Amino acid sequence: MSALQLVDDYKIYMGESHQLTFEQAGKKTEVTIKQCFPWSEPMEFLSLRDEKENEVFLIENLKDLDVLTRLTVEEYLKAAEFVMKVEKVLHIEEDVELREYTVLTEQGKRIFHTKLEDWPEFLPDGSILIEDLAGDIFKIENVNLLDPVSQKNLSPYVH
Amino acid sequence: METLNRKQQFIKTHLRQEGGLPKEVKKLLERMEEDPRIQLYGLSDLDERLKFQEAWVILTKKNLFIVKRHGEEERLKIEVRVPIERISDIKENSSLSCSTFICLTSNDLPPVATWRFTQRQKIIMGHLKYLIEEKIKDQEYQVDPGVNADEEYVNSVLKPVLEAQNSVSTDKKQALWRLLAYLLPYKRELAIGTAGAVLTTAVSLVPAYVSGYLIDQVVKPFQDGVLSVNEASTMAWILVGALTATYVLREFFVWLRLNKMSILGEKVARDLRDELYAHLQTLSMDFYSKKQTGSIISRVSSDTDRIWDFVAFGVVEVGIALITLSGLSAVLISMDWKLGLIMTIPVPLLLFAIYRHGEGMKRLFLKAWRKWSDLTNVLSDTIPGVQVVKAFNQEEREKKRFNDRNGIIMEEFNNIHQAWTGFWPVLMMGIHAIVIGVWAFATPRLIADPTDAAYLSAGTFVSFLLYLTMFSQPIEVIGQVARMLNRALSSAYRIFEILDTNPTIQNIENPIVIEEVKGHVQFNNVSFSYDGVRKILKGINFDVKPGEMIGLVGTSGGGKSTITKLIARFYDIDGGDITIDGHNIKDLDLGLYRRQVGMVLQDPYLFHGTILDNIGYGVPNVSRKEIIEAAKIANAHNFIGKLPHGYDTVVGERGHTLSGGERQRVSIARAILANPRVLILDEATSAVDTETERNIQEALDRLIEGRTVFAVAHRLSTLRKANRIFVIDNGEIVERGTHEELLSKEEGEYRKLHKMQQEMSEYFAL
């Protein structure tokens, strides 16, 4: 789909009720955005879904959007792609059946747990994801840029 | 209460989150609200900039509050107070680790309340959202009176952790004493095992002493000419004999301890397994719906095994190790305190080195374990999926994937071998250094004049050296037992959690005994929820006469299957009452009643065993003739006859050797034989081909004759024999009547469903 068609055919904007709204041919639909490739291509193939999670539109590339729409979508995605980014790994403790991580994230200090058999996952770009028991995701962008203590604490789990 | 406090403490220390609504918030609400009783609350832990915050979302009878901690003084302030009657809608935007709830009064006005939270708060926030939605529909809607907001908050936040490890809600000491109490019935074995252990320790101290004595009292006096050859030989042989006897005795006591304690451990594990399994049989379905099957199975199997390990080797070993250590230290220092100190002072250093090495090894093993799991992942992916690998010609790719990971594992294990092979020689050098130090210190004293106060006899010195070798083992044991104890306690928590769960469905005192139920089933304003918050059934009413067949149709999750579970009394209802033949279902003898309720489910469950065993499962000692008759009615006799082993065919785990349709017919035969008065058919003919469906339907038609039947079905064609049909949607009966009556309703739900299915049949017929 070309950029010209995109701009002419539809609008995406924040409605009065602070809901992302997709408008096409006079029909307004409140939508959420689902990233088809949240880790490998987060800004491409964005699926707009209605209340019942049915796709109403697929944005192939954020670059195809006009500036205003792109800003709106980017603002929305901040919350949608939110994961806790780890700045320091303060401590990792192995207990019976559980592994307890104490970390400093961009948001503040956090303690979380994983099962002993659940290991950090590597993404193609080399960053690391750890999903805790509750389903929260913690991301380490680059292990090598962490301080030496954090690197040492993480070493058995990532090297 | 104690459990709640402990859980709150766990949340504070292990999740760095408030364990409950702060008292200041409750006080704030008391000042603001006429009726400040809190129905539910949750923590919004993300602010609008997606930074952590402490903001409480609280629902009272009439209002929604958001109370946030502010500023340097960290004072709590009410940010939002919205009467619930103003809220028209609550929207949810969920993403990876952040969800946002938005409360609206109108779609074209800004939201009146917005809050964000991480996945950790998702369960309790889900309950809050549900409650707000219900209150939007009905202002008077209340949570169940039994729901405690603090408990809801704590349990929902802790749920994922509790599922994985249940040690947060129990006191460690209490659990240990309770575990040890299982030894009491076996006092004799325990006494013998303990005596064996104590005697092993005592006897182990003897050889070193005898060796020293032999040198000082036999060898040296002989060399000095004090003893003759004969005297020295006699004494030496007596002492060697004593040494032999000591070693024999020691091994006998070792055998006694190991034998008695390992058998005792097995007995305790057996008792726990028996008690656990018996208790599991008494528990109600709500327990099973909350726990994963694997988790329950592992409690009966591996958890009891860990406890055996602890009882057999852990309980006594710690005592022995402590006695040995203190005994050795006392003996050494009393024999020669200077030499004793030289030998004992470096021991903590060595222990520290061993500890550090252990920690390093732990990290290396962790790495290796992780890499090992990468390798096994390839195996568990490709072996079951070998057909896909071959079909896509990806053998080479999979071989490379395996080889790469296999190579990495070898490297990891090489690192481990490098570490331990490097450490032990160094450690041994340390030990040798002590020995050399001891020699250096002892040699001048060994060659000193015997009348000198500093003189050290050769025998005492040899005893010292031998005692030194005994130091390391008890320390190693203490290290291992600490780990063993932790594992055993964790298993004990998991077992006690089940043993402490009371069945929610129980017989009342003097229940009503109905030998034969007629099948008159009434639901009077029945409401029910699985979690106390989300109502699955809302005021259901119906009166079903004996012998009637009722079809239950409607959307998935509407509450159809829940109705059938309540009829079988797998759960007790929250409101209203259910009567069977005019008696409240709760007053009936549960066992007798259940025997008269039969179920044929979508995915029939067959046990590992023969077809004969499975058909006769509910009716012990049934004759083979009756089995065959039931199978004939169920249209199962023919296919069973074609099997090489006939009725003696072993169907395998869950009946996997039979097809879906065959399993269903065996389960119908089982129901026929049990001859229930009330029959529940839950999607009994779905997921089978047309021919099989016809066979099953024929069997079902015979089965339902003369019984009260509740049939849940998606395919409306299977309900052609139903006297009445109830359409269930969102926990309510939205339509009821005969097939014809429901079809005649222009805008009826049933009519819509029927039309949709007709169109689909026509489409597929094309």
Describe the structure in your own words.
The complex is a heterodimer of chains A (159) and B (766). Chain A has 2 domains: 3-80, no CATH class; 84-158. The longest helix of chain A has 14 residues, at 67-80. The relative contact order of chain A is 0.12. The radius of gyration of chain A is 19 Å and the shape is elongated. Chain A starts with a helix and ends with a helix. Chain A has 3 helices and 12 strands, in the order H-E-E-E-E-E-E-H-E-E-E-E-E-E-H. With 159 residues, chain A is α+β, with helices and mostly antiparallel strands. In chain A, a hairpin with a 5-residue loop joins strand 11 and strand 12. Chain B is of the alpha+beta class. Chain B has 5 domains: 2-164, Pleckstrin-homology domain (PH domain)/Phosphotyrosine-binding domain (PTB) (PH-domain like, Roll), CATH 2.30.29.30; 170-336 and 459-504, Up-down Bundle (ABC transporter transmembrane region fold); 339-455, ABC transporter transmembrane region fold (Up-down Bundle); 521-596 and 676-765, 3-Layer(aba) Sandwich (Rossmann fold); 605-654 and 666-675, no CATH class. Helix content of chain B is 57%, strand content 15%. A 6-stranded mixed beta sheet of chain B has the order 13-14-15-10-16-17, sandwiched between helices. In chain B, strands 1-2-3-4 form a 4-stranded antiparallel beta sheet. A 4-stranded antiparallel beta sheet of chain B has the order 9-8-11-12, covered by helices on one side. The radius of gyration of chain B is 37 Å and the shape is extended. Chains A and B meet through helix 2, strand 9 and helix 3 of A and strand 5, strand 6, helix 4, helix 12 and helix 16 of B.
